[in-house]
Amino acid sequence: MGQNSELQSRAQGIGFLVKMSGLQSLLCLFWLGSVQAGKLLVIPADGSHWIGMKPLVEELGRRGNQVVVVIPEESLSMGPSEHTTTLTFPVPHTKTQTQELVLAYMDENLNTDPSVDLGGLLISFITVETFKTFTVRNAESLLFNKELMKTLKDWDFDAILTDPLESLGAIVGEFLNISSIYIQVNHPCGAHFLASQCPSPVSYIPHRYTQYSNRMGFFRRTVNVVKALLQPLTCRRLFSHADEIASRFLQRETSMLEIMSRAVLWFVRFDFAFEFPRPVMPNMVMIGGFSVPKPKPLPQDLEEFVNGSGEHGFIVFTLGSMVSELPEVKAKEFFDAFRQIPQRVLWRYTGVVPKDAPKNVKLMKWLPQNDLLAHPKAKAFITHGGTHGLYEGICNGVPMVMIPLFGDQGDNVQRMVARGVAETLNIYDITSEKLLVALRKVIHDKSYKEKMMKLSAIHRDRPIEPLDLAVFWTEFVMRHKGADHLRPAAHDLNWVQYHSLDVIGFLLLILVTVMFVTFKSCMFCFRRCLRKSQKKKNE
Amino acid sequence: MGQNSELQSRAQGIGFLVKMSGLQSLLCLFWLGSVQAGKLLVIPADGSHWIGMKPLVEELGRRGNQVVVVIPEESLSMGPSEHTTTLTFPVPHTKTQTQELVLAYMDENLNTDPSVDLGGLLISFITVETFKTFTVRNAESLLFNKELMKTLKDWDFDAILTDPLESLGAIVGEFLNISSIYIQVNHPCGAHFLASQCPSPVSYIPHRYTQYSNRMGFFRRTVNVVKALLQPLTCRRLFSHADEIASRFLQRETSMLEIMSRAVLWFVRFDFAFEFPRPVMPNMVMIGGFSVPKPKPLPQDLEEFVNGSGEHGFIVFTLGSMVSELPEVKAKEFFDAFRQIPQRVLWRYTGVVPKDAPKNVKLMKWLPQNDLLAHPKAKAFITHGGTHGLYEGICNGVPMVMIPLFGDQGDNVQRMVARGVAETLNIYDITSEKLLVALRKVIHDKSYKEKMMKLSAIHRDRPIEPLDLAVFWTEFVMRHKGADHLRPAAHDLNWVQYHSLDVIGFLLLILVTVMFVTFKSCMFCFRRCLRKSQKKKNE
């Protein structure tokens, strides 16, 4: 209990709010007695990112590590987690303000016609602007609170686990000079591949927001090359605000990409049942699907509802943790479509309900998505293509109709469509007819179900559970104070050296010199011969 | 027993020699009853390669898979293994002839002055010539024996596990049209990275036989670029004989690189405690150190000998499974050095023994290398730098003096030297003084032992044992009839497309056109302006 009290007194004296359960106090005792346990600082990102990270953080705490999670007082979804100590810090904005920001972002996406959006250029522009605001809004509140930062330093953590979507955690890791482990799904400018020096051949690795597959024709490859050329600029624009805060706080000229290049490990939330096969680096640990829980039985009322669907089965429809409403005119298209199908529908929806809403549709504020998908009568899954739902769909082998809303969802969707396990629709121009066609296709064309079952089998057949893998590597970094043996020497080279441009220049110089000397020698010989023959003629 | 008899009758009728123990017959029964078990064809490569592969093959058999190992009647080290069925086929050469080939190869390496060998160009030339002879000598004997090949086809294997050092297995896999799993340590022309489309940035990934580390100055990077440019030519020369046999046998124009590019999985026998960190592909499974067995207690006489070394401890000295002799003049240098140290020495040596051989040296025909290295009194390991010994050294945390003889050993050694856990000497100009300096350094300078213990801790701290990983992935391929989801789309592109040269050309064309039109427009405007002003002047 000593550590617990110390922790509380240290934190409360300076305005931290400490939330610690009785179980945590017990764990503190365990921490003190255990040599193996490490001290881990966790700074998560908001929204679905926290939901995805939470199982790992809780498991690390459950295993006896001293896990301290630092979150803002006001956030969309972040809150206390089991087996950990949660510290909150004050921020000048409210949860409602953040929600408004997200809704405004989604609205812009809803109103962007994807057919005129060449290679996702417009979408990525909107994303960049939102990203810049969203990812630094908590940073200044923590970084420039000297006492809070001193407390974190005094803790002498072994490592930090953070989501680099929000720049805060990465900057704190750099300041504390401890091993940084990043957990990442998709970064808008592909910063995780740039910063880790992971080669991404543009000829078959589609750039973010292009929504291309890994098999591209000449035109698409051209767009992809152009986007790759612009990538450093995109990253610079994306991080401009964060770069400025980091430089100001660390009191030296730096950039987020430079800070991120020092990451010890990258937990990338994909596996190759989902992601297109591509090169990876030794310090990348693939943990796709690690947050999918074991399915539980449904509550009585839901079990009755889905069983009542008979042979036709039912459809699960959610648009992610951040979106439970739709503009009335869009929602109408969905109600109209559902009226015409024999399947029952469970829809997470809190928007306006029309008077003539069909009876086969059950609207809920929240639904047990994974448990429903695991039900044998689940026939299709209408989803926005967020990674959580996507892996739950794959895990349970349910074909999908995918309606991407924002961020990396369009790219995620493309990966499922390329595997023949999903159909995709644009929210911008969705109609009940289009929805009906897509739903009937994935339900009645057996190839979708068959391919999804194969994908599911491949995804679930793994030598070690991804959650265990993430736990192992986090503890590895704490045990060995880093993982230097996984850091490529590429980080010691500048851009010119990395691409061997100096060597190529030198070799070209030699080549040109040799050619020049050869040419001059030949000309010299030729002229001498000519002179001789002229002399002879003259004689 | 039915399957056993069928197997024997099928094989014996056509000249196969079937070796099957009682245990194997029992296993056959298990195979018949087990749905999960797969049918695996194994075609290994000779020498230390087979020794490295054997534990995996035996474990796959022990787990109930039907494992059929096909080997030539005469070989250096290949023979029956437990829990498997071994089939042998006649070859026109004897074991002695093969041994002579290896010795001649080693002699050439012994007499090549590495100081004049720019970036290993000479060594690689010698290697290429030996490689060409060695790797195809068994191929024709099996491939053009129609009945033997028909028998293998009739077996309807789920997959083939083969070492692509010898081309035979890869060609058989292609002919049988089954999933091919390659087990590979280092290919002389880096074919495993070429064929798997794995990016290898030349700026920090040293080419084979350069003996460079991953941190290269300008000169070394230049040599490395030149070797990379020559790589396709080296590969073509290396495979010229095998390409011809493959094309003749498969009755279509093909190449070994093309055949190898269809590998479903690559088991690469390294991990990053040994190999320099570099990009890898999703279908590469790192199983470095998988063949290191658990150490057993030493026999009574050896235990007494090593314990008699007192506080000074002892040195283990072997030059690999293929080399137990040395030219007398070289051996003398070793005896002279050992005479001057207080440590006892266990040396695997069958060459000429001088009359005044020092008493602290115990010469043996064979020694339990791993068990000796695991002994707490082991102070140093003199080794040629073959991967087996190397991983045994790492596993047991014993600093090394490394004397590379041929093949990839020079590169392996460089990796250990770069980590500060080994000293290296050239066999070409070795003297007792040089040996003494190196031995005293690794024994008395504590940094070698400390760094080696750290490396050992990192190597042994893994989420899953590499042997289990190899077993899992072999069975995965048999269960799912391949692993298409790990195959990058790069294989569908030609060289120009892969490097985006067509796109770059197109973009340059646009750029040049735009510049040309801009220039012409400017010139046009300029001329008009000039004409007007001249007119005005004239007026």
UniProtKB/TrEMBL annotation, chains A, B:
At the top level, the lineage of the source is Eukaryota
Q: Does the keyword tRNA-binding apply?
A: no
Q: Name one GO cellular component term.
A: endoplasmic reticulum membrane
Q: Give the bilayer topology.
A: Single-pass membrane protein
MF-aspect GO terms: glucuronosyltransferase activity
Where does this chain mainly localize?
endoplasmic reticulum
Q: Which CDD domains match?
A: GT1_Gtf-like
Q: Which UniProt keywords apply?
A: Endoplasmic reticulum, Glycoprotein, Glycosyltransferase, Membrane, Transferase, Transmembrane, Transmembrane helix
User: If you read the UniProt record, what top EC class would you report for this enzyme, in one word?
Assistant: transferase
Query: EC no.?
Result: 2.4.1.17
Quote the InterPro entries the UniProt record gives.
UDP-glycosyltransferase, UDP_glucos_trans, UDP_glycos_trans_CS
**Where does this protein reside within or beyond the cell?**
Endoplasmic reticulum membrane
Q: Does the keyword Transferase apply?
A: yes
The UniProt transmembrane annotation reads 503-526
Family named by the database record: Belongs to the UDP-glycosyltransferase family.
Q: What is this protein called?
A: glucuronosyltransferase
Q: Where does this protein come from, organism-wise?
A: Pygocentrus nattereri (Red-bellied piranha)
